[in-house]
Amino acid sequence: MKIKTMAAYAAEGKEPEILFWVGCAGSFDDRAQKVTRAFAEILTAAEMEFAILGNEEQCTGDPARRAGNEFIFQMVALQNIETLNMYQVKKIVTACPHCFNTIKNEYPALGGTYEVVHHTQLLQQLIDEGRIKLKEGGTFQGKRITYHDSCYLGRINGVYEAPRAVLASLDSQLVELKRSKQNGLCCGAGGAQMWKEDEPGDKRINIERSEEALATGASVIAVNCPFCLTMMSDGVKAKEKQDEVMVLDLSELIVQNLA
Amino acid sequence: MVQQILFLILAGGASAYAWTQFMAIRKTILLGQDEVITGDTSARWRNVLLIAFGQKKMFKRWIPAVFHLFIYVAFLFTQVELIEIFIDGVFGVHRFFASLLGGFYTLIINTIEILSVLAFVATFIFLARRNLLKVPRLVKSELNGWPKLDANLILIFEVILLVAIFSMNGADVVLQGRDPLHYHDTGFLAVSSWLGPALFGGLSDGALVLVERAGWWLHLGMVLLFLNYLPKSKHLHILLAFPNTFFARQRPRGEMENMPAIMNEVKSMMGLAEDTGAADEELPEFGANDITTLSWIDVLGAYTCTECGRCSSVCPANATGKQLSPRKIMMDIRDRADEVYTKIQSGKPEYAVDAEKPLDKTNFNDGKSLFDYITREELHACTTCNACVEACPVLINPLEPILKMRRYEILTESAGPGSWLPMFNSIENSGAAWSMTIDREEWTKA
Ligand code: SF4
Ligand code: SF4
């Protein structure tokens, strides 16, 4: 897969339509890399001119900031803003709600203001505009799919409808979780929890959420966040249901259904 | 005349004492640090109107919302009656508004009577929810002791108050028939017009007057008691919900408060800004470890907390048996704030940093901090999911103090969970949240 970097565009004196912010999970985690590739494939199919920062991208600083380490956050955030401003980036899409939130809500106070969209929002737009065509009666037609709202896309940034509209385009049957939208239960990864063990308790948070998702009887658990992806996959595995139930990012569902 | 003097002494004394208590709470809240109030003022008023006055967020759970509404509206309407009680008390008149307002008076008193009955029912349902049904969020361990007693006491107060109101009105109705000159006609009252004759119809005139007066004084007594009980109780929310919803922060939910001191220092390290020399100064404390390092808005939140536990019941950490409970965080802040204020008021030199100078919030150290109330284990368990923030019916933000205390732990104490260190190091050294051997474009190569 050949993906152009911002540097390559700049060398040609051109500007892409949008910057795809990949994020650490999307770059380094095996499972999340698949999501990154799926999303890049969709953008390519939509004939969108997009670029990545490649090795000029750094962690947004979200986990450091939420752990309490403001120094580390400011260091990477300011460097990222330097890079983004140097390339005069205006519009950013990311498949990670944590990157989305930090760039959208936190970078402005540090001098970085951009239009930021989450990949599920862009997917909805591309489908609505007919820039991507989906198969009639695709892989997921009639299947029971449940959708897990991530905290940082849902409750924190109020994006509930775009991912649901994307799911609706698959002609599948959406079964809502008991706790959804504003009341969605966290997968357990946010606030830098991803980098440490749970505190002692009765059970892990991802198990609680996975049990709820499995109770819907859906064969696919759709997610919008690489951390939810890990947490829910682990939960489903712990319940030994990985052969019956798939945990997939929305872009993976769409890419399988591209006409 | 005797009654008037008694009234003035009682009402005056109780109000004055309550006033000193409310002023003490004001001072306690202001032990917190200043915070710049930003954002849209009209949005703030909208919050006061919809969320404090209109109880919008309560209706996410409609059963308690409806019963709470009965008590709330009954409470609001009883204030009208209270004005009359004060006028009657001061001037030694009886039912001052009755002759003045005529049919409208009948309407008001009827409204109060009907709402009182509804509040009565609600009170029993609430007592049952707490003590018989044991609704999980209402029986958690952080409520043991005073909070539990507080919750039940108020409901018992409510019952006594209602008994007072109906004795007063009931006896009055019977007296109206016997002595219309002194007891002005109140018109037909939905409850008292039949309850009064049924209960008190057989009493002598003297006994009736006694019942009516006893009801009146008991009503007044309960009100004055409540006024002085309020500052010590979770019921302070009936007042503080208004300022708390007004001052609730307006920045996006996902934005953590920026720390300009650190931002500027990092900028000068990176050569992005003039070195102001600020870094050479004595290392400041970052984050919060006590009331005086939290913002006053956080402390206001602690005094506004209704201890309803809506936050903790949706907290993923709490739901899976972790120590963390956002309600407990707010209750701990209130307890610690009470402690700090009381100790500063004591004036004891043992609490001073500099014993020569008078005790105040800048000259205070009792060898304790919020960390003696809130454990690190609680702080570390938070996923920053904002469920507690979403759930709170009065717009308290329990996440804010959690994050400020994490900042204190990491930035000021250089402590915190060891497993976060590799993440910090990796971000600092290689700009990635994990230390990796592959590069960021690896995924394009597959
Ligand atoms: S933000 Fe933290 S304290 Fe609040 S509900 Fe989520 S995990 Fe619990
Ligand atoms: S913080 Fe809000 S939701 Fe939590 S107990 Fe207090 S009032 Fe209830």
Shape field of chain B = elongated
Portion in beta strands of chain B: under 5%
Largest sheet of chain B: none
Beta-strand segment tally of chain B: 0
- The tally of structural domains of chain A comes to 2
Strand content of chain A: 5-15%
Order of helices and strands of chain B: HHHHHHHHHHHHHHHHHH
List low-pLDDT spans of chain A.
none
Q: Mean pLDDT score of chain B, rounded?
A: 92
**Number of H/I helices of chain A:** 11
What CATH architecture of the largest domain in chain A would you give?
3-Layer(aba) Sandwich
Q: Which stretches of chain B are low in confidence, meaning pLDDT under 50 for 5 or more residues running?
A: none
Helix content of chain A: 40-55%
Q: What is the chains' assembly state?
A: heterodimer
* DSSP summary: helix tally of chain B: 18
Biggest interface reads: A-B, 74 and 64 residues
Q: Determine the CATH topology of the largest domain in chain A.
A: Rossmann fold
- What is the CATH top level name of the largest domain in chain A? Alpha Beta
Mean pLDDT of chain A: 96
Order of helices and strands of chain A: HEHHEHHEHEHEHEHEHEH
